Amino acid sequence: MCANLTNLSNFDAIIIGAGACGLMCAVQAGFLGKRTLVLEKNNRAGAKILISGGGRCNYTNLHTTAQQFISENEHFCKSALGQWTVDDTISFFETYGITGQEKTLGQLFPTTNKAKDIAEVFTNLCADLEQQIWLETDVKSIQQHQYGFAVTFERQGKVNTLHAPKVVIATGGLPVNKLGATDFGLRVARQFGLNVIKPMPALVPLTITGKDQAWYEQLSGNSIFCRVWNDRISFEENILFTHWGLSGPAVLQLSSYWQAGEEFYMDMLPNQNIARLILSERQANPKKALLNLLAGLYTRKFADALSSQLPVQKNLASLSKADLELIEQTIHHFKVKPAGDKGYDKAEVMRGGVHTAELSSKTLEAKKVPGLYFGGECVDVTGWLGGYNFQWAWAAGFVIAQNL
After folding, report:
1. What are the CA-CA distances from residue 375 to residues 18, 93, 154, 196 (Å)?
2. What are the φ/ψ torsions at residue 149 (nearest 5 degrees)?
3. How far apart are CA 16 and CA 5, in angstroms?
4. Which end of the chain, N or C, is more open, meaning fewer C-beta atoms within 10 Å of its C-beta?
5. Where on the phi/psi map is residue 344: left (φ > 0), alpha (ψ -120 to 50), or beta?
6. Which residues contact 51 (CB under 8 A, 6 or more apart)?
7. What is the pLDDT at residue 1?
8. Residue 139 has what pLDDT?
9. pLDDT at 5 over 60
10. What angle do CA 372, 355, 175 make, to 5 degrees?
């Protein structure tokens, strides 16, 4: 056994998963003179990087703090985010030719708008630093022994086992199935006796069924700026009506704070007061129909859809106090009760994962299993939409690399 280990354990660590966290970990380990092997199930490295942001890759957010992350322990991510900051991310990519441009709300994209440029930074560096990436490699099991870990995998139709003193689990979460997403990281955690917070889709569109479904269907494709909120959080961004419910940035953000069976509310004119607008317009144009006023604020299609909820055919002068109260309630406190969400295949990320109490916040090493590290999406740290999850992944990869 010892001779066999000597032959096969010439890696300082085996990293499972060539996503954002795993690739950053391999590169940073290479900078420190450590040798890693990255095992990836897909036929390309950085598969999720390549499709993120519609192929443009929103690779960080200028406003990143711990407040934009959901976790059982809201303080857990502070150490990693402090060790590898947004400025570190920007400087790192600039060093390798990636200049960022801010699109909206601190979201940073490459000026080339090409996600492949981000992925190629890592694949090129791994080649330069002699960090190996084995693609189309399906890890079957991880076993601990006195020398570290035995990782068994299938590659090119053959099953083999390699040994290394340390293993990094950077396998991501359950979205997106077409990219080979699995619960492998969670299964490994449970295998080693680590607690796992129940995983659920996050940053995911919400569905509407039943008697309200037809109303949303007729508005499919319409987008309006809204404030959406529940008793835990509030977001102001666009929402998108779809034939199955609601999507768009504001709804995706809120979905991470939504539980099945709950309601939330929409203010569909967040920076104005509809009653004041009506009273002001009534003085100038008393015979103007409410429908025409609404069509000036929204699309005509959306104004027409409100006819089932509001007295849109009335002219402004004839609107009663009760009418104004109904209009104000409908526009500013529109109640939504989703039936569910679109699941992992439409979710941007997974919430839940390996319980942060099981990991060192400074190193991301499992407290019960020395030499075993967890980073990125499989950990119970879930960022908002807008580059936050990439920043967490880069930071986690960096932190782990410093401790291999």
Report:
1. 12, 20, 23, 14
2. -140, 145
3. 19
4. N
5. alpha
6. 115, 176, 179
7. 31
8. 97
9. no
10. 90
